Amino acid sequence: MANVTRSRPLSPHLQVYKPIPTMVMSIVHRITGAALYFGTVLVAFWLIAAASGQAYFDWANWLFGSLIGRVVLFGYTWALMQHMLGGLRHFMWDLGHGYEKNFSTKLAIVTPVVAVALTVLIWIIGTLAR
């Protein structure tokens, strides 16, 4: 039996394209979306611990208050902000705005900077509110 796929061209993949900001932000948007599933499990765990009694709630608070727990929560906060801003960018495109190459590239570059700034701001406010 002859191999009919041998003469067909291969579909280009990520190794063929030069990474540009909008492409990288698209990939990051997908990754943060997947990470938010894990973070939602953590939120559900915390809520279940709160409903299960004081001892479980104290243990969950200890876990999330540890260094590793805080790093995970910080990452979850960043993923939430990054994904939200990416979603707003897509919403703007759905409304028919921001297709210009210069504008979309600048927006893709600014998005992670604003996401980090919002994450830090949220954590500063959360720390001061204790």
From TrEMBL:
Pfam families: Sdh_cyt (PF01127)
Name assigned to this protein: Succinate dehydrogenase cytochrome b556 subunit
Phylogenetic placement of the source organism: Bacteria, Pseudomonadati, Pseudomonadota, Alphaproteobacteria, Hyphomicrobiales
Ranges that cross the membrane: 35-57, 63-86, 107-129
Bilayer topology term: Multi-pass membrane protein
Function: Membrane-anchoring subunit of succinate dehydrogenase (SDH).
Gene: sdhC
Family designation: Belongs to the cytochrome b560 family.
Cofactor(s) listed in the protein's UniProt record: heme
Keyword field: Heme, Iron, Membrane, Metal-binding, Transmembrane, Transmembrane helix
Compartments where located: Membrane
PROSITE patterns for the chain: SDH_CYT_1 (PS01000), SDH_CYT_2 (PS01001)
Assembly, per entry: Part of an enzyme complex containing four subunits: a flavoprotein, an iron-sulfur protein, plus two membrane-anchoring proteins, SdhC and SdhD. The complex can form homotrimers.
Domain of life: Bacteria
Major place of residence: membrane
UniProt cross-references to Gene3D superfamilies, sorted A to Z: Fumarate reductase/succinate dehydrogenase, transmembrane subunit
